[in-house]
Amino acid sequence: MVSPKYHVFVCAGTKLSGDKKGLCHSRGSEDLVRAFMTEIDERELSGEVLVSATSCFGICDKGPIAVVYPDGVWYGGLDAEKVAVIAEEHLEGGTPVKSLLI
Predict the structure, then answer these.
(1) Which of 8, 43, 47, 102 has CB atoms 3.0–4.6 Å from 76's, for a disulfide?
(2) How many domains, in total, are found in the chain?
(3) Residue 46 located in a structural domain
(4) The whole model's pTM is what?
(5) What does the alpha-carbon distance between residue 50 and residue 24 come to, in Å, rounded to a whole number?
(6) Residue 51, domain CATH
(7) Structural domain includes residue 21
């Protein structure tokens, strides 16, 4: 069984019905999932960090959103540049990025 150090959940903006109509989806959350995966691969963190797309978190005004567990850290207003900062400072360095917290 895989026991990653971190598990990143990215809101894919998908509603329970399966419709992709959420704000996170319309703001490119699927690209953010790929950005997290690319950063993790490039930093050779594949064994330590798992990324999952989720259904809607329900706080769309803060989106796109990602949550890092087990820390319970919520990030909002994300784009690919901010994903790189999270990967460097939090996932690699162990320190949450305070300026991106929601």
Answers:
(1) 102
(2) 1
(3) yes
(4) 0.90
(5) 20
(6) 3.40.30.10
(7) yes
